[in-house]
Amino acid sequence: MELTVEGRKVFAATGGKAFDPSLPAIVFVHGAAADHTVWKLQTRYFAWHGRGVLAIDMPGHGRSDGPCVPTIEGLADWLIAVLDAAGLARAALVGHSVGSLVTLEAAARYPDRVEDLALLGCAFPMRVNDELLDAARDNDALANQLTNAWGYGRAAQRGRHTMPGLWMLKGGMRLLEDAGDGVLYNDMNACHIYEGGERAARALSCRTLSIMGEKDIMTPLKQARKTAAQIDGVREVVIPAAGHIMMDEAPDKTLDALRDFLPQPT
After folding, report:
1. Is 254 domain-assigned?
2. Who has the most CB within 10 Å: 53, 112, 127, 157?
């Protein structure tokens, strides 16, 4: 599905079923240098169980027009413009990594537009390792290698996951390699410079879920729990052995957490 936001094309996957804006909606927002494909299982499930689903490609990512938006605040405003373009007065938001900060900021800024919020791999401040940030700035292949190696938990790297025969690390590398020059740096730097996490967390008025990977290196469990503790009434789910990319490493457990949290359509 293609939308037009601020005169530019925005692509959104709809879970294999035509999008119906009259249904309760869920909007999925991907992480750094990724796209809508990271939500394969979760989007299909909800689309075929009474929800309108949009898994969006952020500006300059996947099939969406550029340029990239360089700040979390700017992306939060853009996300609400996506809801407008899709004809949605309200929606549940699900965000991963940089996408979790975008959805967090959007929910805090526009409380009347967000029904429920699910944050995956969310911690703040979300500082980025200097070597990784420098490599991303230079479009050095090392940036992709570090992002991939630190993104997946050791169980997934060794093939101990629920998707037998799938080489997750290679799939992760191909996704990063498909991103254009400067995309990874844009996203990493947006996380690195974002200072509004505590303010946004304390301003939330919607039901909120935090899904954390037990073995997450990029947003470590200790820091993710510290972040979640600042959100009133937050529900926490820790996925055993999972790293940062839990919706890929543990898709069923990630789906279970979302399904248990989000209200069933009536």
Report:
1. yes
2. 53
CA-nearest of 132, 133, 103 to 197 is: 103
Q: How many CB atoms lie within 10 A of CB 166?
A: 13
pLDDT attached to residue 22: 96
Could you tell me the CATH number of the domain that includes residue 222?
Answer: 3.40.50.1820
Q: What's the distance, CA 185 to chain centroid?
A: 16
Residue 109 in tokens: 């800024």
Closest alpha carbon to 152 in 213, 237, 228, 61: 213
What is the percent of the chain where pLDDT is above 70?
Answer: 96
What's the chain's average pLDDT? 94
Beta strands in the chain (DSSP E): 2-5, 8-13, 25-29, 52-56, 91-96, 114-120, 207-213, 235-239
CB 189 within 8 A of CB 128: yes
How many other β-carbons are positioned within 10 Å of the β-carbon of residue 11? 19
Asked whether residue 196 is domain-assigned, the answer is yes
Which strands, in side-by-side order, build the sheet including 207-213? 2-5, 8-13, 52-56, 25-29, 91-96, 114-120, 207-213, 235-239
| Confidence at residue 169, expressed as pLDDT on a 0 to 100 scale | 78
- pLDDT tens-digit readout, 80-96: 999 999 999 999 999 99
Q: How does residue 263 score in pLDDT terms, banded at 50, 70 and 90?
A: confident
pLDDT for 160 equals: 64
Q: Is residue 18 part of a domain?
A: yes
Are 24 and 50 in contact by the 8 Å Cβ rule? The answer is yes
In total, how many domains does the chain have?
1
How far is Cα 64 from Cα 159, in angstroms, rounded to an integer?
32
Answer yes or no: are the C-beta atoms of 224 and 212 closer than 8 Å. yes
